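Comment thread on ticket #2218

A.B. wrote:
> Attaching the input chain for the structure job we discussed in standup.
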Amino acid sequence: MAKLWDRITTLETKLKELKARQATADARKRAVESRRARRDEVRRKILAGAVVLAKVERGELDGALFQKWMDEGVTRAEDRALFKLR
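C.D. wrote:
> Ran it. Output below, let me know if you need it in another format.
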């Protein structure tokens, strides 16, 4: 009977180790997906900003309206300085 209990204990230990490995792999996968989502979001913002800036430069979008949007939306001093906002 002791051998059976030893085998059960060994298998339970192995199961715990495998579950821990699976949890680590799942966490790694979530981290990769999260980084990818953040990277994609930043890329979308950069591209959208580039399109808006290009339209302002070409006169297709009112520069005063753009300045108003930026004045309303940008709050950090160093960010405001990039757009020459007071």
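A.B. wrote:
> Thanks. Noting for the ticket: The helical segments are 2-57, 63-73, 77-82.
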